[in-house]
């Protein structure tokens, strides 16, 4: 949302219950004002209200911004899927996975002008059977346990490190389950500790990659199944992801597709972009290039 005449109105959807939303929404408004952009802010009061606000009010604005966690961002992104209305994601949560993945500064004061001077990109979205959308990944196993087990006290005091602690604990437990996955009509069964349907391959500014050739704009998502059999395997898998080493490995399985159904024995809680869902089965359909996002301009 560059600020030439005719594109100078923004709506900011704030989740005051998020880790930084209530603290920084005035900072965000000041940053919009300094950039010469008129911005109205609405604070949500309940889950799902961000989507309602976006659907109702977005035609009155040139772009919609969110300030909250990834859940708030995806409420708005999902509500505006297919509308061509751009969404800017400001970091206001604990993990800020989407902001980190998109290269958005983690300072609200810096993020506002960077996005206003940025560019628009279209990305695929995943749609769950209940109708909700996700942008980064959905899955079961270690990643869902990381979200479920993260200490509220640690999230308040150390932010994203709370997830590092809970991920480490979940990975070391190596809880294995039987999974049956159908991708575009073809079925595979494996034992696994983590199963993900990923839209972005790069994690934490490309510190690691989840798999080979994963793109967020190709009309596909990528199944990533990790099946460590020993403690040594459990250490080798993240080491290979850090090194971006995707040579054939019996503990790592990948498959791209447009429709996924994940069934586990026993049923397990799933997650999508850091939000816990109900138990499996998990069903995902790709919506190609459904979201229009504001991202920093690449130099």
Morphology = elongated
Report the helical percentage.
25-40%
CATH topology of the largest domain: Tumour Suppressor Smad4
Strand order of the largest sheet: 6-5-18-15-8-9
- Give the number of domains: 2
* Quaternary structure classification: single chain
Give a quick precis of the structure.
The protein has 299 residues and is of the alpha+beta class.
Descriptive tags:
299 residues; alpha+beta; Rossmann fold; Tumour Suppressor Smad4; six-stranded antiparallel beta sheet; 9 helices; 18 strands; 30% helix; elongated; disordered N terminus
What does this structure look like?
With 299 residues, this protein is α+β, with helices and mostly antiparallel strands. The protein has two domains: 9-117, Probable inorganic polyphosphate/atp-NAD kinase, domain 1 (Rossmann fold), CATH 3.40.50; 133-287, Tumour Suppressor Smad4, CATH 2.60.200.40. It is built from nine helices and 18 strands. It has helices at 21-34, 49-57, 70-79, 97-102, 108-116, 142-149, 152-158, 161-173, 231-243, and strands at residues 9-14, 38-43, 63-68, 87-91, 119-128, 133-134, 137-141, 177-183, 186-192, 194-198, 202-203, 208-209, 221-226, 252-257, 259-265, 269-272, 275-279, 282-295. The strands form four sheets. Strands 6-5-18-15-8-9 form a six-stranded antiparallel sheet. Helix 1 (21-34) crosses helix 5, helix 2 packs parallel to helix 3 (70-79) and helix 6 packs across helix 8 (161-173). It starts with 8 loop residues before the first strand and ends with a strand.
Write the layout of secondary structure elements.
Layout: E1 9-14, H1 21-34, E2 38-43, H2 49-57, E3 63-68, H3 70-79, E4 87-91, H4 97-102, H5 108-116, E5 119-128, E6 133-134, E7 137-141, H6 142-149, H7 152-158, H8 161-173, E8 177-183, E9 186-192, E10 194-198, E11 202-203, E12 208-209, E13 221-226, H9 231-243, E14 252-257, E15 259-265, E16 269-272, E17 275-279, E18 282-295
Parallel strand pairs: 1-2, 1-3, 3-4
Antiparallel strand pairs: 5-6, 5-18, 7-10, 7-16, 8-9, 8-15, 10-13, 11-12, 13-14, 15-18, 16-17
């Amino acid at each position: 949302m560059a600020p030439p005449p005719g594109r100078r109105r923004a709506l900011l959807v704030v989740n005051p219950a998020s880790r930084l939303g209530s603290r920084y929404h005035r900072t965000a408004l000041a940053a919009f004002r300094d950039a010469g952009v008129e911005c109205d802010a609405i604070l949500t009061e309940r889950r799902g209200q961000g989507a309602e606000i976006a659907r109702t009010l977005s035609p009155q604005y040139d772009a919609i911004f969110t300030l909250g966690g990834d859940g708030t961002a995806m409420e708005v992104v999902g509500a505006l899927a297919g509308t061509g209305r751009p969404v800017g994601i400001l970091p206001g949560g604990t993990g800020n996975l989407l902001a980190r993945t998109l290269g958005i500064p983690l300072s609200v004061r810096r993020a506002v002008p960077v996005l206003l001077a940025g560019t628009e990109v279209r990305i695929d979205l995943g749609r769950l059977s209940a109708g909700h959308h996700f942008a980064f990944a959905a899955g079961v196993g270690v990643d869902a346990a990381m979200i479920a087990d993260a200490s509220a006290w640690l999230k308040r005091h150390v932010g994203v490190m709370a997830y590092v602690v809970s991920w480490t604990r979940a990975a070391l437990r190596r809880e294995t389950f039987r999974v049956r996955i159908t991708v575009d009509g073809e079925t595979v069964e494996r034992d696994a500790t983590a199963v993900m349907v990923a839209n972005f391959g790069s994690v934490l500014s490309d510190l690691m990659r989840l798999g080979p050739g994963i793109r967020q704009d190709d009309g596909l998502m990528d199944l990533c199944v990790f099946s460590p059999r020993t403690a040594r395997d459990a250490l080798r898998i993240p080491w290979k992801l850090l090194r971006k080493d995707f040579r054939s490995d019996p503990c790592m399985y990948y498959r791209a597709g447009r429709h996924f159904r994940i069934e586990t024995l026993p049923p397990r809680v799933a997650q999508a972009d850091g939000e816990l869902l109900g138990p499996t089965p998990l069903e995902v359909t790709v919506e190609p290039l459904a979201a229009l996002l504001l991202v920093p301009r690449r130099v």
